[in-house]
Design brief:
214 residues, mainly alpha, 6 helices, globular
Length: 214
Protein backbone atom coordinates (compact mmCIF):
# COMPACT_ATOMS: atom_id res chain seq x y z
CA UNK A 1 0.00 0.00 0.00
CA UNK A 2 3.03 2.29 0.09
CA UNK A 3 2.35 3.54 3.62
CA UNK A 4 4.76 6.21 4.86
CA UNK A 5 5.69 7.35 8.35
CA UNK A 6 5.06 11.05 8.97
CA UNK A 7 6.43 13.02 11.91
CA UNK A 8 4.88 16.27 13.14
CA UNK A 9 5.82 18.82 15.77
CA UNK A 10 4.35 18.62 19.25
CA UNK A 11 1.98 21.57 19.32
CA UNK A 12 -1.77 20.92 19.23
CA UNK A 13 -2.41 21.91 15.61
CA UNK A 14 0.80 20.42 14.18
CA UNK A 15 -0.97 17.99 11.85
CA UNK A 16 -3.12 20.72 10.30
CA UNK A 17 0.02 22.25 8.82
CA UNK A 18 0.87 18.99 7.06
CA UNK A 19 0.07 19.03 3.31
CA UNK A 20 -1.85 15.73 3.49
CA UNK A 21 -4.15 16.85 6.30
CA UNK A 22 -7.01 19.27 5.78
CA UNK A 23 -8.99 18.89 8.99
CA UNK A 24 -8.42 18.44 12.71
CA UNK A 25 -8.16 14.95 14.20
CA UNK A 26 -8.51 14.65 17.97
CA UNK A 27 -5.56 12.30 18.50
CA UNK A 28 -3.49 12.97 15.38
CA UNK A 29 -2.88 10.60 12.48
CA UNK A 30 -2.21 7.20 14.08
CA UNK A 31 -1.96 4.10 11.93
CA UNK A 32 -2.22 4.05 8.16
CA UNK A 33 -4.38 2.07 5.76
CA UNK A 34 -4.82 1.69 1.98
CA UNK A 35 -7.33 4.57 1.97
CA UNK A 36 -5.00 6.79 4.06
CA UNK A 37 -1.46 5.52 3.44
CA UNK A 38 0.33 7.52 6.13
CA UNK A 39 1.25 6.52 9.68
CA UNK A 40 1.78 9.54 11.89
CA UNK A 41 3.34 10.32 15.24
CA UNK A 42 4.48 13.51 16.89
CA UNK A 43 8.18 14.22 17.39
CA UNK A 44 8.37 13.68 21.15
CA UNK A 45 6.19 10.59 21.37
CA UNK A 46 8.08 7.52 22.68
CA UNK A 47 9.33 4.76 20.42
CA UNK A 48 6.91 2.22 21.86
CA UNK A 49 4.04 4.42 20.64
CA UNK A 50 5.57 4.47 17.17
CA UNK A 51 5.65 0.66 17.34
CA UNK A 52 1.97 0.67 18.31
CA UNK A 53 0.99 2.84 15.34
CA UNK A 54 3.02 0.59 13.05
CA UNK A 55 1.09 -2.38 14.44
CA UNK A 56 -2.19 -0.64 13.65
CA UNK A 57 -0.88 -0.12 10.12
CA UNK A 58 -0.03 -3.83 9.88
CA UNK A 59 -3.56 -4.63 11.06
CA UNK A 60 -5.14 -2.61 8.26
CA UNK A 61 -2.64 -3.18 5.46
CA UNK A 62 -0.99 -6.58 5.91
CA UNK A 63 -3.23 -8.84 7.98
CA UNK A 64 -5.59 -11.21 6.21
CA UNK A 65 -9.14 -12.05 7.35
CA UNK A 66 -7.87 -15.06 9.30
CA UNK A 67 -5.39 -12.91 11.24
CA UNK A 68 -8.06 -10.39 12.20
CA UNK A 69 -10.50 -13.12 13.16
CA UNK A 70 -7.89 -14.73 15.42
CA UNK A 71 -6.99 -11.63 17.38
CA UNK A 72 -10.65 -10.73 17.78
CA UNK A 73 -11.20 -14.14 19.34
CA UNK A 74 -8.23 -13.49 21.65
CA UNK A 75 -9.79 -10.13 22.53
CA UNK A 76 -13.07 -11.80 23.53
CA UNK A 77 -11.14 -14.19 25.76
CA UNK A 78 -9.24 -11.31 27.39
CA UNK A 79 -12.50 -9.46 28.09
CA UNK A 80 -14.07 -12.56 29.63
CA UNK A 81 -10.94 -13.18 31.73
CA UNK A 82 -11.03 -9.51 32.84
CA UNK A 83 -7.55 -8.92 31.46
CA UNK A 84 -8.68 -6.18 29.12
CA UNK A 85 -11.27 -3.45 29.68
CA UNK A 86 -11.40 -0.50 27.26
CA UNK A 87 -9.30 2.46 26.17
CA UNK A 88 -12.36 4.70 26.75
CA UNK A 89 -12.40 5.86 23.14
CA UNK A 90 -16.01 4.85 22.49
CA UNK A 91 -17.42 8.42 22.40
CA UNK A 92 -14.48 9.67 20.33
CA UNK A 93 -15.42 11.31 17.03
CA UNK A 94 -12.83 12.15 14.35
CA UNK A 95 -10.05 10.79 16.52
CA UNK A 96 -7.85 9.61 13.64
CA UNK A 97 -8.18 9.18 9.86
CA UNK A 98 -8.17 5.37 10.34
CA UNK A 99 -10.38 4.60 13.36
CA UNK A 100 -9.65 1.47 15.36
CA UNK A 101 -12.01 -0.87 17.20
CA UNK A 102 -11.38 -2.23 20.69
CA UNK A 103 -9.97 -5.54 19.44
CA UNK A 104 -7.33 -3.55 17.53
CA UNK A 105 -6.46 -1.58 20.66
CA UNK A 106 -6.30 -4.79 22.70
CA UNK A 107 -3.61 -6.25 20.45
CA UNK A 108 -1.76 -2.94 20.50
CA UNK A 109 -1.75 -2.99 24.29
CA UNK A 110 -0.44 -6.56 24.23
CA UNK A 111 2.37 -5.26 22.00
CA UNK A 112 3.21 -2.68 24.67
CA UNK A 113 3.74 -5.55 27.12
CA UNK A 114 5.74 -7.47 24.50
CA UNK A 115 8.03 -4.44 24.36
CA UNK A 116 8.09 -4.13 28.16
CA UNK A 117 5.98 -1.01 28.57
CA UNK A 118 3.60 -0.81 31.57
CA UNK A 119 1.45 1.93 30.01
CA UNK A 120 -2.32 1.58 30.27
CA UNK A 121 -2.24 -0.67 33.33
CA UNK A 122 -5.95 -0.01 34.00
CA UNK A 123 -6.85 -0.81 30.41
CA UNK A 124 -4.84 -4.04 30.21
CA UNK A 125 -4.05 -5.93 33.39
CA UNK A 126 -0.83 -7.58 32.30
CA UNK A 127 2.42 -6.25 33.78
CA UNK A 128 5.31 -4.67 31.91
CA UNK A 129 8.99 -5.14 32.71
CA UNK A 130 9.67 -5.39 36.43
CA UNK A 131 11.95 -7.17 38.91
CA UNK A 132 10.02 -10.41 38.49
CA UNK A 133 9.91 -10.74 34.71
CA UNK A 134 9.85 -8.89 31.41
CA UNK A 135 6.55 -7.75 29.97
CA UNK A 136 6.91 -10.43 27.31
CA UNK A 137 7.28 -13.07 30.01
CA UNK A 138 4.29 -11.67 31.91
CA UNK A 139 2.31 -11.72 28.66
CA UNK A 140 3.20 -15.35 28.09
CA UNK A 141 2.00 -16.27 31.58
CA UNK A 142 -1.15 -14.12 31.66
CA UNK A 143 -2.43 -13.85 28.08
CA UNK A 144 -0.94 -16.70 26.10
CA UNK A 145 -3.21 -16.14 23.10
CA UNK A 146 -1.98 -12.59 22.58
CA UNK A 147 1.60 -13.69 23.20
CA UNK A 148 1.37 -16.35 20.51
CA UNK A 149 -0.26 -14.05 17.96
CA UNK A 150 2.45 -11.44 18.46
CA UNK A 151 5.16 -14.10 18.20
CA UNK A 152 4.01 -14.61 14.60
CA UNK A 153 4.67 -10.92 13.85
CA UNK A 154 7.73 -10.14 15.95
CA UNK A 155 10.78 -12.20 16.84
CA UNK A 156 10.56 -13.46 20.41
CA UNK A 157 14.36 -13.47 20.71
CA UNK A 158 14.53 -9.72 20.09
CA UNK A 159 16.08 -7.66 22.92
CA UNK A 160 15.35 -4.16 21.59
CA UNK A 161 14.34 -1.64 24.26
CA UNK A 162 12.22 1.30 23.09
CA UNK A 163 14.22 3.61 25.38
CA UNK A 164 17.22 2.05 27.11
CA UNK A 165 17.78 5.26 29.08
CA UNK A 166 14.25 5.32 30.55
CA UNK A 167 12.37 3.17 33.00
CA UNK A 168 11.46 0.36 33.08
CA UNK A 169 14.06 -0.59 30.45
CA UNK A 170 16.96 1.16 32.19
CA UNK A 171 16.61 -1.08 35.24
CA UNK A 172 14.80 -4.06 33.71
CA UNK A 173 15.81 -4.45 30.05
CA UNK A 174 14.09 -6.79 27.66
CA UNK A 175 15.28 -10.38 27.34
CA UNK A 176 14.89 -12.62 24.34
CA UNK A 177 13.20 -16.01 24.16
CA UNK A 178 14.04 -19.07 22.10
CA UNK A 179 12.06 -18.68 18.88
CA UNK A 180 11.91 -22.40 18.12
CA UNK A 181 10.60 -23.22 21.60
CA UNK A 182 8.04 -20.39 21.41
CA UNK A 183 6.78 -21.54 18.00
CA UNK A 184 6.41 -25.10 19.26
CA UNK A 185 4.64 -24.03 22.46
CA UNK A 186 2.24 -21.77 20.55
CA UNK A 187 1.26 -24.15 17.76
CA UNK A 188 -1.79 -25.68 19.49
CA UNK A 189 -3.04 -22.26 20.63
CA UNK A 190 -2.62 -20.72 17.18
CA UNK A 191 -4.38 -23.66 15.54
CA UNK A 192 -7.22 -23.34 18.05
CA UNK A 193 -7.67 -19.63 17.34
CA UNK A 194 -7.86 -20.38 13.60
CA UNK A 195 -10.85 -22.71 14.06
CA UNK A 196 -14.00 -21.21 12.45
CA UNK A 197 -11.95 -18.36 10.98
CA UNK A 198 -11.42 -17.87 7.22
CA UNK A 199 -8.76 -20.03 5.60
CA UNK A 200 -5.23 -18.61 5.57
CA UNK A 201 -5.35 -18.07 1.80
CA UNK A 202 -8.53 -15.94 1.87
CA UNK A 203 -7.88 -12.31 0.95
CA UNK A 204 -9.91 -9.16 1.53
CA UNK A 205 -12.11 -8.16 -1.43
CA UNK A 206 -10.64 -5.33 -3.46
CA UNK A 207 -12.50 -2.05 -3.62
CA UNK A 208 -13.20 -0.84 -7.16
CA UNK A 209 -12.36 2.75 -6.19
CA UNK A 210 -10.52 2.97 -2.87
CA UNK A 211 -11.66 6.00 -0.90
CA UNK A 212 -8.92 8.45 0.05
CA UNK A 213 -9.70 10.03 3.41
CA UNK A 214 -7.96 13.33 4.14
Amino acid sequence: AGVRVLIAGDDEDAWQRHPEVHRRFTTGLGGGAPWFPSTGIQALEPNNLLAEELLHTIQYVVMKPQDVCMYRKAYVHAIEAKLYTTDESGPEVDGEPVPTVQADEYLAMALQRWLGSPMGSQEYRVLGNDAEATGREHLRRSDFKAFCLLSRLFRSNDTWNPHSDREPWKTYPNRGMNTVEVAKACQVTVDGLAVDCPRADVEWPEAVQPRRFH
